[in-house]
Amino acid sequence: MTAQATANDGQARGNLGQLILATGAFAVCFAIFGSVSAMMPTIKTDLNLTPVQVSVALALPVLLGSLGRIPLGMLTDRYGGRVVFSAVMAGSIIPSLGMGWIDTYNQLLIAAFGCGLALASFSVGVGFVSGWYPPQRQGFALGVYGAGNAGQSLAAFGAPVLAANLGYQWGFWVFSALTVVWLICFMLFARNAPRQGPAKSLSQIL
């Protein structure tokens, strides 16, 4: 059986391995996003922030995460989820690491805004997973993928505990490290589903 035939057969039946990879990637991205709000009480005290400043700092990543899903979904349709999801994870690691070194409010805004990229990962995984499953099984596949939301809960409970035991920075850095590990696994083992027809042009996507 050729590689193409094997891929097509996997697409017809669904591909649990690719689903696990995407769900894990979504989970670590949401953990990065969730660590911002989880650590905000500590940040508020350290930087002596007002309630308005806190609200703005929490709103910025949500803004990027919401708006960013549109172009990321388009890019996934064009180039495939493997490269786009890898880029999103890599891009999310940088501001997450930066959150551990912030000293000013402006630095907080920049780093928090960058962490919103992790929230935008949702649309990438939807496109990636959908390609591997036939229509009658996509509800199951996307339901499993959506369980990656648990990453935010992991951050909500885990980040303060890590910070209390290891230091403030580790409330962010542990999730950054997990994302690095998953990024490596994703790049090694993730594969795009075979395309059904030619890729859409930019004008068609728009």
What would you note in describing this structure?
InterPro entries: MFS, MFS_dom, MFS_trans_sf, NO3_transporter. With 206 residues, the chain is mostly helical. The protein has one domain (14-192): MFS general substrate transporter like domains (Growth Hormone, Chain: A, Up-down Bundle), CATH 1.20.1250. 80% of the residues lie in helices and 0% in strands. Helix 4 runs antiparallel to helix 9 (170-189). It is elongated and about 55 Å long.
List the helices and strands and how they pair.
Blueprint: H1 3-13, H2 16-47, H3 51-79, H4 81-98, H5 105-119, H6 121-130, H7 138-146, H8 150-166, H9 170-189, H10 202-205
Compact summary:
The protein has 206 residues and is mainly alpha-helical. 80% of the residues lie in helices and 0% in strands.
- Write the CATH fold name: Growth Hormone, Chain: A
CATH architecture descriptor text? Up-down Bundle
Oligomeric state as shown: single chain
Give the overall shape: elongated
Radius of gyration (CA) equals 18 Å
- CATH homology superfamily name: MFS general substrate transporter like domains
Q: Considering DSSP H and I runs of 4 or more, what fraction of the residues is helical?
A: over 70%
Kindly, what is the distance between the CA atoms of the first and last residues, rounded to a whole number of angstroms? 38 Å
Which structural class do the helices and strands define?
mainly alpha
Estimated share of beta-strand residues: under 5%
Q: Provide mean pLDDT, rounded.
A: 91
